[in-house]
Structure formats: C-alpha cells, structure tokens
Amino acid sequence: MKLAVPLMIGQVSQMLLGVADALMVGKLGVTELAALTFVNSLFHLPLVFGIGLLSSVSVLTSNARGAGNSAAARASCRHGLYLSLLLGVVMFLGAWILSGYLGLFGQPIEVSAISKTYFLVLVASVVPALASISLKNHADAMDRPWPPFWIFLAGVVLNIGLNWVMIFGKLGCPALGMEGAAWATLISRWCIVFAMLGWLETNRALKEWVPYRWFRAPVSKDMRELLALGFPASVQMLFEVSAFSLAGLMMGRFGATAMAAHQIAITLAATAFMMPLGLSMALTVRVGEAFGSGEIRRLRRIALSGWGMALAYASAAAVVFILFGKVMSGWFSGESAVVNLSAQLLVIVGVFQIVDGLQVASSAMLRGLKDTRLPAVIGFISYWLIGIPCGLLLGLALGWDAAGVWWGLALGLLAASLLLGPRLWWRVR
Predict the structure, then answer these.
(1) Alpha helices (runs of H) in 27-142, residue ranges in sequence order
(2) What pLDDT, on the 0 to 100 scale, is given for residue 15?
(3) Is 290 within 8 Å of 302 (Cβ atoms)?
(4) I want to staple 412 with a disulfide (CB 3.0 to 4.6 A). Which of 50, 238, 383, 418 is the partner?
(5) Could you tell me if 26 and 261 are in contact, meaning their C-beta atoms sit under 8 angstroms apart?
(6) Which whole-number Å values give the CA distances from 273 to 19, 211, 263, 302, 360, in the listed order?
(7) Is there a contact between 134 and 75 (Cβ–Cβ < 8 Å)?
C-alpha cells in the first residue's frame, strides 16, 4: 500500500484530464461530445500500446533494483526514453495518414466533420505522454512514487486551466471549442516531461540510478530486452482496450445519443479503473523486486494480498456505480435520454468491476515475473474471441443495442479473470 497509494491517486488524477475534457466539451453540445467519443476511441489504441510496451521499464528497473545492479537500471531508463520518443513519432505519422480517412469509420457526418484537427493535435500529445510515462515507470520502480505524483498532478491542474482558457475563449484567447481541449493536453504533457527530467537530474538519492548521459548511442541488446518483454504486454493491453474502442465505434450505429452515453460510461469506468491499475503497477514492482532478488517465497504472499486489495476496492466501486449511476451521468449531460442510457450502462460497469480488478492484478503480477507471452494469447481469446463476438450478438443480432455491446465486454473481462488467475497461482507456487 505504501507504493500503491500514490500510484492509484496518480492514475486517478491523470484520468481527470479525460474527465475535464468530457465535462467541458459536453457543454458545447451532444455532437461535440460524440466527436470526443469517436476520437478517443481511435486515440487510446496507440496510447495503450505504448503504455504496455513501456511497462517493461518498470519490470527491468525493479529487477535491477532487487539485484542491486544500478547499471542495468540506468540502461532501462535511458532505453525506455528512446523507445517512447521513437514510438510516439511513428504513431503521429500514422495518425496523420489516417486523418484523411476518418469518414470511413461509419460515424455520423456531423461527427466526422469536426474531428480531424482535434484528432491530430491529440495524437501529437502521444510523444510527450509516452516519454513522461517511461520516466515515471523508472521512478516508481525505484520506490520514488511521490515526486512524479505531484508533477503529474500539477500537469492535470495546468490542463484544466488551459481547457477553460482555450475551449471557451478566456483571458484574450480565441474560443477554440473542442480543439482547445487537444491543445491544452499537448501543452500540459510537454510540461510534465520537462519537470520529470529536471527532478531526476537534480535528485541526489537517485544519482547512481539515473543515466549519466541521456543521449548515448542505444545498445541493441538492451533495446531487444525491452521489446521482448514489453511487446507481448502491449499486445495484451491492446486486445483489451481495442475491444472497448471498437465498442465506441459501434455506438455510431445506434446514434449520437448512444455515443454520448457511451462516452459518459467509459469515462467514469476508466476513472474507476485507475485505482486497480495503480495497484497493479505497485504489484508489478513488488513482484519484480522479489523475483530479481531471488525471494521466491514472497511471491505467493504478494499474489494473495494483491488479489485481496483488488477485490475490496472493486466491491466498493460496484456498489457506487449501481446505486449512483444516474446521479453521476447527470454531471455530464442535461439531456434525459443520454442520462438514462448512460445510467443503464453504468449498472453493467458495476457488475464487471470485480472481475476487471482481479484480471488486471493477475496480469500485472505475471508481468513482474517476465511472463507476458501467454497472457497476450489469453487477452486475444478473452476480448476478441469471446467479448467482441458476444457484444455483436447481443447488441446487433438480438437488438440489445448499446447495453448488449457492454454485456459482451463484461463477458470478455470475466474470461480474462478466469484464465489469468490460475496462471499466476501456478507460477508463484
């Protein structure tokens, strides 16, 4: 909990970026909120792929710390930053090509028409986002979670302030509408990167664990190790998030109201997910430390405590979503049709909280053991062979519409939990 608490709070604070965007853009109208849903469905795929790839920094740094190998930790940090910058640039170039074909995704014409500039600026923010995540992963694995927490929180506050100025045209700035939200995100993320680099350079306690020279020529062996560990993890995360993104795209078939309701539900569900995600990041570090130092007997106790904490939080979150879903939906929209539908979706979110918390905890602990290949296969089975087909069947074939798609996602999460849990227990035994 000492490590998990700042990570959980930090993850929630980062989600406030998306919550602030949804709240402020929602004031512009249903079409703008629907466009936000569409763009975020596309944007989160490359971002989550990068996050999964860079999770290898946490694993390798924590392994190195457990073994007392500062040189390996420095290499992990430096090569993680290289990888994040390269990946971010490649993703932006791909998004620039894709931006000319947004109309092919089957969205309402008025939604596609206002999405292009917002999409490009938002994807440009992937470059600083991934760089800051890489640096934060290294600091967290070094058991220094609080300074990054405060830096990232300051970035959230800056983003919200810039949203107010740039979306609505305050303090002499022209009113940029939803595009202002994207520019605010880009600026605040670059500020976070520079603040993280400044802190790491000036922290004396981490002097031996931070690169002496940041831009030395990369070592191919170290880059291969990062990729070999991070790529399967990123693929596993991509399968899960792409299922939710595809669900967002499917909402276009049910109209702007369904898209707006889905955006509200996914924003609140993702915000709640940041707590077990922060816990899972701490579990990756603790398992990596124990594994790196050869303390194999600790692994089983870490697994049991991780499951217990994930279950406790998920139970509380489930109660909140089921009982107060309609109240929370009203924060985002004043239209009764949108509020009522999003409240229905939040009941489903409440139902799948427990299995979602358990599967992310199991996946993270397996990552700390450098076990990422089979979990990637499990992710494909759970989300693309079970979750998406069930969502299509219930939502389109049986006519359950948006609720049917979300029940399909819930079944995918259940499958992941039932498959990853036994895998972890077998490994720690």
Answers:
(1) 30-67, 70-98, 109-113, 116-124, 126-141
(2) 67
(3) yes
(4) 383
(5) no
(6) 13, 33, 15, 20, 9
(7) no
